[in-house]
Structures are given as C-alpha cells and as structure tokens.
Amino acid sequence: MTVMTSSSPLIIKGVSKQFTLPGRVIDALSDVSFDIRPGQVTGLIGADAAGKTTLMRLIAGLLTLDKGSINVLGMEVAEAPLGIQSVIGYMPQQFGLYQDLTVLENLRLYADLQGLAQAQRPERFEKLLAMSGLAPFGNRLAGNLSGGMKQKLGLACTLLKSPDLLLLDEPTVGVDPVSRRELWQIVYQAVEEQGMSVLLSTAYLDEAERCHDIKLLHEGRLLAQGPPQHFTRPLNNRTFLVSSRAPGGKRQLKNQMAAQPWVQDALILGDDIRILTREALQTPNEFLHHNTVAGQSKLHDLKIEAVEARFEDAFVDLLNQQTESAPQSDPPTLDTPEIIASEFDDRPAIEVDQLVCRFGDFVAVDHLSFKVQRGEIFGLLGANGAGKTTTFRMLCGLLPATEGHLQVAGLNLRHARAQARAKLGYMSQKFSLYGVMSVAQNLAFYSKVYGLKGKKRQQRMEWAIETFELQHLLKQPSRDLPLGFKQRLAMACALMHEPDILFLDEPTSGVDPMGRRDFWNKINALAEAGVTIMVTTHFMEEAEYCDRMAIMANGRIMALGTPAEIKQEAGHSVMEEAFIRIIEADKAAETKP
Amino acid sequence: MAWLSWARIWALTIKEFRVLLQDKRARFVVIGPPIIQLFVFGYAATFDLKQAPVAIFNQDQGIISQEIIGHLAGSDTFEIVAQLHHQREVAPLIDNKKALIILNFPSDFSSRLQETGTTQLQVIVDGRNSNTALLAQNDIMQVIKTFNEQWAQAHQLNQAPVSLVQRNWFNENLKSNWFFVPGIVALIVLVVSLLVTALSVAREREEGTFDQLLVTPAVPLEILIGKSLPGLMIGLLESNIIILIAVFWFDVPFRGEYFLLQFALIFFLLSAIGVGLMISALSTTQQQALLGAFMFMVPAVILSGFATPIDNMPDVIQWLTYVDPLRYFLVVVRGVFLQDLSLETLWPQIWPMMLIALFTLSSAAWLFRHRNA
Amino acid sequence: MSGMSLKWMRIRGLIHKEFLQIIRDPSSISIAFILPVILLLIFGYGVNLDAKHIKIGIVQQQPSAESQDFVSHFHQNDYFTPQTFENLAQGKQAMQTGKIKALLILQSNFAADFHQPGTAPVQLLVNGVDSNTANLINGYVQGTWQTWLIAYGAERGIRVLQPVETVNRIWFNAQVNSRYFLVPGLIAIIMTLIGALLTSLVVAREWERGTMEALLVTPISIQELLLSKVIPYFILGMGGMLLSLVMALFLFDVPLRGSLWLLFLSSALFLWVALSMGILISTVGKTQFVAGQIAIIVTFLPAFLLSGFIFDIGSTPLFIQAVTHIVPARYFVALLQTEFLAGDILWVLVPNLLALFVMGIILTLIVLKKSHKRLD
User: Fold this and answer.
1) End-to-end CA distance of chain B
2) What is the CATH number of domain A237-308?
C-alpha cells in the first residue's frame, strides 16, 4: 500500500462509544470528529478518562463503534479490520512484550507476525536495535529490561515493518527523561525517513510541544485542535516568572501568588514561581500595578520577568475554562497537621551513609550517602533501574541493607520496634490499596492499623475525606476510581496517622496534569507543616518543586543539591536537559576506561 | 502479650473478610467448590455396587439354577441384563461392557447337585476396574453363600459343621456413604482454607498492598492472626454446615462428641491455614500460589486415606503421609462420626496436627518479612 | 510472498514463542512435566485398593490344636498380618483405637463345638468405617475359613460339601491389580491438566499481561491465533500421554492389549476436546485466577470423579450418571481401560470415539463463535 500524500491517513467522523458497567453507562467518546495530516506526529492530549485509549483501540479495530465512522488509509475500520491491522502499527499502553523471551526473540516473533521477509530482517533488526540502543542486550530476557528499555523494545517491535500509520498510546508513562528523549528520536526518525503518520497520546505536556498537531480531548469530546503554537499564542503576556529577593519561603510565595484573583495558576520552578495570569498583562509594570491593587505590600520586592508560554499553560487554561463553567465549590486547603515536636528535631530526618544493596552479583545501590532535613522535600531522580525504588524499600524497612548505615527518624526501620513505623507514611509506585474494598473501608482499615482510636480516629477520617474530596465516592470500590482519585485515596491513607516522614515512590506516574498539580499543592502544604517528604519522579517539572534533590544512576548519586544548583552544575537552565547531561556524562565516564 | 494490639488484629481480620467476600471471584472460591464437591462426592464417590449388569448363560436343565437367578434378580446389587444361549455370546458381552458379570450354569448344574451334593458355577467378571471386579465377585459369593445355607438346611445336608459369624462394627451395613461423607468434611475444609489463605498473601504481594501493610506498625504475628482468623471462621462455619448436611441429608450417624470434633477441627484448620500461608508467603504471584496449593492438595488428598487405605501403600509413601494433616483429621472425623472415639484415643491424631500448625504458621510469619521479591 | 506462506510464518513464529515460554516458565513446566510424574508415581505406587497385609487381631479364648491350626492359616496368608491378643477386652480395645482392622474371636468352645453343626464358635468383627476395605476383609476371611475347613475336613476324612461352588474368573486383570486400571485412567487426568488447565492459564496470561492486545492488532487472523495456541499444547499433551504410556508399560508393567494407533487416535481426539475446553475457559475468564479456578472445577474434578477413573459410574445415582455423559473424560477413560486391558473392541471404541468427536466438533464451533479479534 502506498501512502496517499494528499489525503488524510486517518479520518474520524462522529465517533461515539459507550461502556456499560453494572449500574451505570459511561460515555467514553461522544461525537468526536477529526482527521490527521500525513507524515506528521499528531498528539492526542487529555486528562484521565478523556477517552484517549478508547479512541486508539477503536482505530486499531479492537473495539466496535457505536456511532460514526473511522477511515484508516482509505479503509473503513468496521469493514476491513484485518486489512487495517496489516498496515498500521499499534503500541498499547502496556505493550505486550513476552517477558520470558529475549529481546531478539521478541523481535523475531513480531517480524513473523507482521510478515517481514527473512531477507530484510538482519538489516532491519540491526537498524532498530541501534536506534533503540538495545544492540548490546539482544539476548537479555525482556522481563529483565528496565522500564525505559521495555518501551523502546515495544516501539521497535511495532516499527518492524514500517507501518503507514503508527498509534502510540502513552508510550512514555513511567519512563525516565533519557529514555523518553530516545523514544521521541526513534519516532521522529521514522516520520522523517519513511513519511510515517503518527498518532500519539501522552500525559506529559512538554511532549505535546514536540507534536506537529494536537487534538485535545476532554471527557470524551474534542475540545480543541491545532498546532501547539495555536494553543500558546493566546497566552502571550500571561506567563511570568516571579522571584523573591528575600531568601527562602518559595512555597509561601507560591501560595500568596496563587491566592491572587488575577492569577490563574502558580507553580514552583526551582527557586522561582511561574505564574499564569487570567488576562494578558502588557508589561511587568502592569503586573506590579495589579499587586498594588491587591494591596499586598509584601510582594513589592519581587523580581518579575515575562516568559514564553508553554503548552501546559494552555492546557490548564482550557481545562479551567471547562471546569469553571460548571458550578464548583472552592477546593479546600489542606489543614496543617500538627506535628508533634519530637526529640529528633535538630537531627536530620533521614540519614544515609555508605548504603549498599546487592542482589547476588548485581549492585542495586552502591555506597549511597545523603541527609534529608526535617520539613524538606527531597527528590530522588534517576533513569529507570537506577536504584531509586530499592533505596526507598530499604529506608522503609522492606528490604535489608547489605552494608552501610541508615536512619529514619533516628531509627533503622528494619530492626526498630513496630511502633516506630507509625512515624512514616508510604505511597508506592502503583496503586496499592484494597481494590475490592470501598473508599470508606480502606480509610477505616488504615486508620485502625495505624492504631488510631475513638474520637481521634473519627477526626482523622473526616479530615481525610474532606481534604481529598472523597465525600461522594465513599461507597465506591476503590479499584473503580479514576486514577487521580485512586492516588488521592492512597495519599489519604498514607497520611491518616500524621506521619513525620512521607515516602512517595513515583506518586504521579500516569496521573494527568491537573491531578498532579492538585497533588503537589497538598505536598507543599505538608512540607510547610514540617513533614519531611521524600519523593521519586520522572516528571522534571516536579523535580523543580523539591527543596533538594539527588540524581541517581547505576545505584550511585551523580548530583546532589537544590534544583538551581543542579541546573547550574550541569550548565543548562532546563531541568530535563540538565538531567540528561548529568546521566550522559556518567555513561561517557563509564565507557571511557 | 501486651505488644499485640487486638484492635489492629480485628481491623486486619475485618479487612480480610471484606477482601474475601466483597469480591465476586473470591466469594466463589469460598462457596462454589465446597457445594460442588459435597454433592459430587456425596453421590459419585461410592464403592458399593448398584444394579451391576449381570448376564446369565444358563445351560442347566433343572430348576436349581432358576432359584439362584431368582436370588440375584431380587437383589438391588444386580440387574440381569441378558440371557445367553451360546458360549460364543459370552466374550463379546463382557468385551463390550454390556455385562460386568456372567454366570455360567453348566448343563449338569442341577443334576450334579442332586446326585453328588455339590456342583459348580462359573463366574466371569470384567476386571478392567479391578475394585469393581472384586466387589462384584464378593457380592456374588454372598448370594451363593446364602443359597448354600438355605439349601443345606432344607435338605438336612451334612453341611460345614461350624460357621463363621461376621459382624461389622461402626458401619453395620458397610455403606460407603458413611465412609466418604465424613471424609468430605475434612476434604472441603482443607480445600477451602488452603485456597483462601494461599491466595491471600500472594494477592497482596501482587497488588502491592502487602508492602503497604509492612510499613504500618502491624507486626508479623498480628498479620498472621489477621490472616488466619477468617480462614478459621469460614472453615468452622462451612464444616458445621457440611456436618449438618451429612447427618440430615446423607443420613450418616453422628455418634461421638460434637465438641471433641470441633476441638480437633480447629487444629486441623490451623495446620491447613499454616500450609496455605506458607505457600502464599513463598509465592510472588497468585498464579504461583494457586499452583502451589494445587501441587500440595492433590497428593495430600490422594495419600490421606480419603479413598484408599494408607495401610495399602508402600512404606516409603506411608512415611510421606505423616506430614499430611488430612491424614490425621480423617481418622478423627470418621472416628467421631461413626465410632464415638474419646479424646484419649484420638490424641495421637491431634498432636501431630498441632505440630504441623505450629511449624507452618511460624514459618509463614517469618517469611512475611524475610522474603523480598 | 504469497498469503499462504505468510500465514505459516505467523503461525510458526507463535508456536516457536509458545515453546520458548513453556521451557522458561516454571509454572508451565510444573503442570506439563512435574505434576504428571508425581501423579503417576503416587497412583502407580501409592494408591492401592487391593488390601494386603491386613492387620487382623486374633483372640483364642482357649487355644487348642484346632484353633492353632486355623490361626496358622492366617499366618501363611499374604493378605493378613495377624496379631494375637490375650483376651477379648484387649482385642476390642485395639479395634477401637484402629490398631487392627478386624478381630477374629475363636471362642472357648471352638474345639468342643467343632463337630456340632450349626454352632458359631468363630466370630469375626470388622471395622466397617472403611466399607470397601471391610468388604474385602470379609471376603478374604471367608475364603480362608473355607479353605481351612476343607483342608481340615479332608485330613479327617470328612467331606465338607459346598452345595454350590463357584469357579471365579476375572477377565483382563486376573490378579485384580488395581494399578492396571488406575494407571491407564490417569492418562485422562494428565491430558486434562495439560489440555485444559495449562492451556486456559497460558491464554489467560496473555490477556492479563497485555500481550493479547498487541497480538490482536497484528495482521494475524483469529483462526491462525487459535491454531498457534492449539498446536504446541497438542504436542505437549501428546508428549504427556507418551510419557504416561512409557511409565505404564515399563515401570508399572501394565499390559497394552489393544493397538497403539487406536490408543493414539483416542488420545488425540480427547486432547482436541480438552484443548477446546481450555481455550473456551480462557475466553470466559480472562485472568489466570479465574481461568484456573474454572478449569479445576469444570475439567479436573469431573475427570477425577465422574469419569469412571476411580468410582464406577454404573453405581452412582441416575442423575449423576446423566451428568457424566457431558464429561469428556468419561469416554476417554472407557477407551483407555479397554485399549490397555481388553484390546481393540470396536463395540466399546466406536461409540466412545464418536462421542468425543461430536464433543470436539461442538466445542470447536463454540470456540470459533466466541473468539474474535476485539476487546469488547
């Protein structure tokens, strides 16, 4: 099949799809119409439950349409699913790699399935392996690859026969920035060399800017479409970087800014605050004018700088317009939990010295040393498989340390009495609450397990329900909650007993941008109240929210300091770039000797 | 044990019940297999012959053969399915499974008996199922024995001077129902408690909730008790329902001490739960746990004496059965149901179960924290 | 490339993958290889319905030459392991505690009353809890008693006449060795494990791990996909059958009286049915947990209990007998027991083979109707 350059490889007309669950009907997609341009990367952007995955599956012929039509490369999906499946490539969110097959065996299998001729294989394999950086790992079992490598292999498998249309469903979820960048390179290479058309859904808004064209889905409807610039242009003169000359207190500054009626959104960016205003402000002077109007004398000694709008700003703006049109109560602010002043006040909350963890020959954590002060947000960043989760598990007492010294709240939790564990809260990478139990039952269970009793327990339950806005969901089984609410519930359970230290292992992986914002507001409030927070993340913008952070690779710390220090050390002002430089410097250092 | 928090244990127990009973799939494990097994075993597991097909090849001219045939026809054990007229019909009938037994009365059957006082009857049995064959042979012998006694009496023959009087204790009419149905109590309790517990820890590991639990102040012993109590309660409840069904539906007599049975049942349940939790603590996925439970269960049931006596097994395999808790509890449950055995008599069956429970439960508790996958 | 060779490339690729997975996945190995061997060993050696060395207690209330002679018959006999008790109370105690299975009481008047017709100086008490064993014990003691009586009478010139003597012949299994019927029947169980349980688990695993979604969007047709699942597990199942056959013939000395090709034909037919069931189960329950549960309840337990493998179908109540007609293992067990012990008896083989064939057709049609390349 030849690609018809003139016509669209994908035409979607009036597509609707409903799912029937016991007791309710969900409109996954309602009357969505668009087409994509050939030879371009089209981004499918949307919050959770926007209908991205459903749409992908409909295009791939895996679901039946309720209404409308989908035309792929001149074929109707309803009529010729098999024909379409032989010319498209589709990578589901969780790509079906066979864990107990090696990299090469997986490639060979998909080459067989897609009917790639034997003669073409050596060349094609070599090329894809080189592109994905998997060449040295041809004989490694797919199950033993890191998350990022798995995604790259999945992509390589779908690209084997150079499909005319490539569908990628959130290919970069849970993938570290280095691997993410590599994934994008592979996609772009395919687009440029073969004129492939790509439809890609993502929750990373910075990736949206890399797309040629964007389709913004919201609650099953197409909200907006156009090239990224089209989205950001209206935001000219609405984005500013604010920095306080007075040292520290960036979280307070952020809260103050967010409280201004003319500010739509405020985010911490390293030492500064990035804000999005509701209306365009022509000059920083006008900005100051607004401040005086607001009568906030404190804000006077601020440095204000206009910055370029990002896609994320547009996304927030558009979605806020949507939600604001509906009546909504003010989001409650997080009451500051009372932190019992303990005897460790002047000592670091977490102390790690020469920590080592080995699994057989494999050194997962290699002589790690760092300290986290009370009330600090400490970020642990690194590529997939850098040893972050292992470090977390050791700190929480879930895994014995092979060597070295570690103290959490002055104790080693592996050996400390059980009560010591009441000082910490833990939220793991994937949702880990009892799925069959309702929200209320989960809350009740964790409150009891943490030993809360009587009135105190009642209070904390009410606090959790109110703070995390769970009132209308109390009776729902927690597994049926949308991802964002699952993660709220998990956090509510982890905070039930007012821990001094909170461990968050990739808490926002797969959560949409709005959910992440909401989440971080709560984290900030906790830190303000004196809770020590240790967090891992793959979102570089989240790294900016941390007070201090460490970048790990191969079980070692590559860089340690405040976000600003790290960016400076790497010599780049964007955290993602800084991160990649640090990781790559390490790789280079390793290959040299 | 001041450091154990009963509130926490209770919370863990309630949680375990909720996870078990609020989920359709998990609920099915607790309810489905027991019902199916109870009725299938209750009816299908039988070693009693009923309406075994008998074919008669009667070449006899006299009437004595008719008398014996009359005896057979009147019994519920046999059903006469064919009358043969030629020797060549015999083999195909057995071969084709049309008849289990063929009685061949020779042409001089009656006349010989009248002339010499003794005569011969040929009995051919299909041996493909050897147990059925033995039973059929025994049942035919019983019919003949009765006939012999009656004949001797009627003809004042010089019969065997003395006779052997048989009495069967505990199960006077040798109903295999009485043997199997109490055994089912043991079997179902094993299957349910094993499945419920074997899947519990593995499921929590798979879903990540186990780590979440381990970072709470709950200690392994509390988790262990929290995990065991639901299995114990469900096992006790189900076994009592089955006991009721056994007595009132299947008409098995309950002659012994009810509380003695419950006492032993608790230790049996604990040992089964211990095995289940141990399997669970060793597995990382539910599939492994399910397979592990299955791999334990199949030999445990087959080698327990549930259907075939342990005495018949070779020594090496008999040694293996000592670690099988079902072996002990089967003796208890049958002993209490049919024999009214005392605690003293049953003690040698009870303490090994205590030992198994202690070992498996403590290993499980240790594995909770020390197995990291 | 032609469509045909593409088709084969896809199927071959998937089959190759399936074998690699079987070899590398411990749970597949345990179901396909370890469990069958364990079952064969347990059933071949462990399960024995033929009571031997029965623990029997003997109480001679007044030992005499006659009673000693009688007791010696039990000592010479392979069926019994006699144990002597001083008095009745001790013997009954041993019965209660289960130390002995039966108690033979030779009363004090054994010798004196011996010549008085109609008296009963010998009593046999049998523990009836295990009714099957009790039945056998009764038979054995009866037999021993008869043999002794005749021998004893003959020594003294008394002809003890049995009005009717039976001449028993047990066909196909003259030694009534229960191994002969259990081991062939076990092949049905093992093939059920591989064909239904393992197959349903591996297909469900593909759904669970998301590999199915990736497979479905490749240009493979649903028939090719099914075929590529069926072929490897068919080979594995036949391998399991071959393993069982070799162990049956050479380890357990079970005779094979029928022809090998008919045995393979029946096995292949049954495996086809079992595989169709396995695939059907996995399309109903798309997680390994559910598929495993259903497979055990719908295929494994019936194959064990309702197939005539251990318990005689003819002796069960009519409604259970009716249910057994939809259990494929029922037909296969009948085929196996006949093929091994009786031979090529067409009257047994043809109807059972036909039944399996019809079931295979029906199940295959259902599978084809139920399977489609969609997620909803």
Assistant:
1) 31
2) 3.30.70.100
